[in-house]
């Protein structure tokens, strides 16, 4: 058997994004903004809805196609719906919510409980549900369309002994990623291209759970997840001879900085201190002389 190598090159690929959050954290809205950015102004995307049509609340703000996914929420049911969307030619698919695959009606938890009811309780009852989940994930990783998963998250609680009595309290002193638990199979968030935690205290602002260096420029620290993040991911996913997402974003920021500088020192300072710009200061600092050269000369 012969084995061949060829020059390594990143080609057109898909991205898988997971957004987990509490109620009111902006998961669905952020997912729709990401999808629009990923497919572009005229592209098509779809929503697979397990939340009784909740995504339709945004139908007047986004142009998308909608499909209801009913229980039982087996992994294969999700897979069939996503494969149907891929076959229909959608550039991106939002799945809201993926948490039902784990704890919804007929999901992994109920499936394992059904197997236990038919015999003795044993870890072996999880074997089939876990195998079906793994099969689904392996297939999702091969999809050609972009996938955005919305998931619920719940706050972990601490059981403490206070004045001799056991009390349950919120783990407010823990780091956010330890304090909040996405409702899904434990490895799911790390199977993604990128995954985030969103909170109702800052709707739409993603706290990275998994975010690799090549994707950091798409998600500004402290800024909401929006269409520009989707555009940057789409540019990266194209690969080949396309400009990298990082270089496109840097060019755009340099242009913005020049325009702000031409408007005067105060305008430039306000731009430089913007929350979304702070996340790019490392790459923008070498261009400060370029910005200074654009400032109006004194007396003009």
Q: What would you say about this model in short?
A:
The chain folds into 2 domains: 16-211, Rossmann fold (3-Layer(aba) Sandwich); 245-294, no CATH class. The chain is 38% helix and 18% strand. It has helices at 27-39, 75-87, 100-103, 108-117, 127-140, 176-179, 188-191, 227-238, 245-262, 265-272, 275-278, 281-284, 288-294; strands spanning 16-21, 45-49, 65-68, 92-96, 146-155, 157-162, 165-170, 180-182, 194-198, 207-211.
The H/E string reads EHEEHEHHHEEEHEHEEHHHHHH
Integer-rounded radius of gyration: 23 Å
**Count of discrete alpha- or pi-helical segments spanning 4 or more residues:** 13
Output mean pLDDT.
88
Please give the CATH architecture of the largest domain: 3-Layer(aba) Sandwich
| CATH-defined fold name of the largest domain | Rossmann fold
Number of domains in the coordinates? 2
**Percent of residues in beta strands?**
15-25%
Unreliable stretches (pLDDT < 50, length at least 5) are none
By CATH, the superfamily of the largest domain comes out as P-loop containing nucleotide triphosphate hydrolases
Shape: globular
Using the coordinates above, name the CATH class of the largest domain.
Answer: Alpha Beta
Fraction of helical residues: 25-40%
**Helical/strand content category:** alpha/beta
Sheet of most strands: 8 strands, mixed
The total beta strand count reads 10
Give the N-terminus to C-terminus distance in angstroms: 75 Å
């Amino acid at each position: 058997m012969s084995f061949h190598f060829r020059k390594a090159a990143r080609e057109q690929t898909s991205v898988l994004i997971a957004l987990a959050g509490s109620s009111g954290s902006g998961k669905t809205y952020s997912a729709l903004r990401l999808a629009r950015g990923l497919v572009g102004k005229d592209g098509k995307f779809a929503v697979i809805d397990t939340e009784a049509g909740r995504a339709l609340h945004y139908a007047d703000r986004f142009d998308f196609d909608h499909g209801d996914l009913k229980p039982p929420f087996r992994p294969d049911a999700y897979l069939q719906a996503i494969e149907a969307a891929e076959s229909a030619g959608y550039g991106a698919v939002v799945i809201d919510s993926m948490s039902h695959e784990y704890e919804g009606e007929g999901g992994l938890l109920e499936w394992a409980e059904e197997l236990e009811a038919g015999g003795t309780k044993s870890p072996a009852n999880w074997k089939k549900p876990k195998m079906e989940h793994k099969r689904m994930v392996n297939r999702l990783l091969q999809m050609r369309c972009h996938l955005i998963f919305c998931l619920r998250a719940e706050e972990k609680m601490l059981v403490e002994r206070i004045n001799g009595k056991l009390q349950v309290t919120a783990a407010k002193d823990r780091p956010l990623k330890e304090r909040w638990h996405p409702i899904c199979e434990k490895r799911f968030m790390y199977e993604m291209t990128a995954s985030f935690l969103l909170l109702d205290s800052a709707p739409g602002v993603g706290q990275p759970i998994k975010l690799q260096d090549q994707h950091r420029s798409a998600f500004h620290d402290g800024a909401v997840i929006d269409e520009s993040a989707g555009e940057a991911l789409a540019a990266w996913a194209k690969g080949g001879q396309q400009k990298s997402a990082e270089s496109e974003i840097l060019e755009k920021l340099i242009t913005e900085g020049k325009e702000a500088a031409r408007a005067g020192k105060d305008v430039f300072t306000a731009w430089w201190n913007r929350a979304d710009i702070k996340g790019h200061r490392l790459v923008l600092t070498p261009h400060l002389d370029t910005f200074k050269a654009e400032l109006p000369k004194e007396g003009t």
